[in-house]
Amino acid sequence: MDNNSTLNSSIHITQSSDAFYETGLDDEFATDDVAEMTQIWINERNSPEILPYRRRLVEDLTELIEHQGMVAMEGLSENVDMRFRSMLYQTEMERIKFLIRNYLRTRLYKIEKYTTYLLNRPDVRERLSDKEYEYAQRSVFEQMPFDFHNFIVPNLKTVFPGNAKSYAELLEKHYSKSFLNTLPQSQQDVNEKINTLSSVSVPDEYSAVIVRGKEEQGMFELESRRQYEIRLSPESIYMVRYSDIKLLLDEGQVELI
Amino acid sequence: MSTFADNAYKLAKEAKRTMEILAPYNEDLVRSICREIRFLCSLIDKIKADMKSELQQNPSAITTVLVHHLTVKRSKRVLMAYHRQRVNRVKQIIWDQGNVLSSDNRIALSGPEIDFAKDYSELMTSYKQNFMEIDLGGNGGIGLDPPDDLFIEVRVLKDAGEVQTEYGVLNLKRGSQFYVRRTDVESLIRSGYLKHV
């Protein structure tokens, strides 16, 4: 029965059952992770801009899934009861995988949509994971082992085997090959601004989000409309401008729904 | 002579019309818009060179330059939008159907677009390798739909030989039916070997 205890302490099969959630479970840790991941994923899906990457959470859950996968496989050969259990665990694993997959893909979508904006804003760039940053733009100078004492610049080909390029490079190359390089020199810039029209896509901070307080926090004044206040509590749900609750979301006081 | 940016307008309309599908790349139109931009830019340069310092005093010349300049910017914007929309479409195809572009799609794409598709699928694959356990999908693999049943009933439409799964070997012979784990056969369903029943 040693197997069972490991199974129970890792991932609960009750994620979809709200009642079970609230009645408290013997192992808070893992269940919290899944619940947190679910909320992080919902936030990411609903927020117009990219949110800080939750590396620890993703890594923990990935590790758990890996572990769980092995345990579930062991259960296969055993009796019918164990097989049934194993199936439940696998179903749950698929669900968690879906969460993480969708979370990462949502982020990729935003990265591709706002590449230039993300890369030009150091504060926003920080929210990307290392891999995501690499995906958006491979920075030659940050990754190159540069020997300052002897001034040896390594051959780029040996530093970057293969020719996987970053998304920003790909896009620029594509535009250039498709039409930009046939235009006069003065018109070859990819990112330009004419009056109020910019060719760089920027997330719309004024778009509406639906928000709910996490705890009883009292009243909160909206920045865009000073005379309005919203009540932060798990019972009140509001539709507000994203820019108004941006800070609250960052501090984890509210959640998007 | 047609009005300036006429072709750009045509291209913009075409982009709007073909929002949902991958239409053949309109190389002629793109080229003629580029030609117009080059022509207008040379006009602007010529006016500027001829007038030099007098430009400021000549309202008619300055207006000409302004109108030409706006036309150039407008056309360029349309070109950017047209290409971006197509790029998004290409990316979607790569995620949904895989990097092996079907011949239908291949005809519709321009040379640079085919290169882009190839490079993009490489980029995507190298990012995906960071998350082997999760399997981010793409290349015709698992989609973004939430998981349904763990096991599904599938019918074999085309012979696919033997397939190794964690539950043993499946001999996929046409017409036979199996009860298998969804994740094991996802890609076979998408490529048309199996059918979910």
Automatic annotation (TrEMBL), chain A:
Domain of life (superkingdom): Eukaryota
Subcellular location(s) of the protein: Nucleus
Gene Ontology terms: cellular component: GINS complex
InterPro entries, per database record: GINS_A, GINS_bundle-like_dom_sf, GINS_Sld5, SLD5_C, Sld5_GINS_A
Protein name according to UniProt: DNA replication complex GINS protein SLD5
Family: Belongs to the GINS4/SLD5 family.
Keyword line: DNA replication, Nucleus
SUPFAM superfamilies documented for this protein: GINS helical bundle-like (SSF158573), PriA/YqbF domain (SSF160059)
UniProt domain GINS subunit: residue ranges: 83-138
Lineage, uppermost ranks: Eukaryota, Fungi, Fungi incertae sedis, Mucoromycota, Mucoromycotina
Function summary: The GINS complex plays an essential role in the initiation of DNA replication.
Gene Ontology BP annotations: DNA-templated DNA replication; double-strand break repair via break-induced replication
Domain DNA replication complex GINS protein SLD5 C-terminal: 203-257
Pfam families according to UniProt: Sld5, SLD5_C
UniProtKB/TrEMBL annotation, chain B:
Biological process according to GO: DNA strand elongation involved in mitotic DNA replication
Broad class of where this protein is predominantly found: nucleus
Residue ranges crossing the lipid bilayer per the database entry: none
InterPro entries: GINS_A, GINS_bundle-like_dom_sf, GINS_Psf1, PSF1_C
GO cellular component terms listed in the entry, alphabetical order: GINS complex
Domain of life: Eukaryota
Domain (GINS subunit): residue spans on this chain: 44-131
Protein location: Nucleus
All copies of domain DNA replication complex GINS protein PSF1 C-terminal, residue ranges: 149-196
CDD domains reported in the protein's UniProt record: GINS_A_psf1 (cd11710), GINS_B_Psf1 (cd21696)
UniProt keyword annotation of Nucleus present: yes
Subunit structure of this chain's protein: Component of the GINS complex.
Function as written in the Swiss-Prot or TrEMBL entry: Required for correct functioning of the GINS complex, a complex that plays an essential role in the initiation of DNA replication, and progression of DNA replication forks. GINS complex seems to bind preferentially to single-stranded DNA.
Family indicated by similarity: Belongs to the GINS1/PSF1 family.
Name the record gives this protein: DNA replication complex GINS protein PSF1
Organism: Umbelopsis vinacea
Lineage summary: Eukaryota, Fungi, Fungi incertae sedis, Mucoromycota, Mucoromycotina
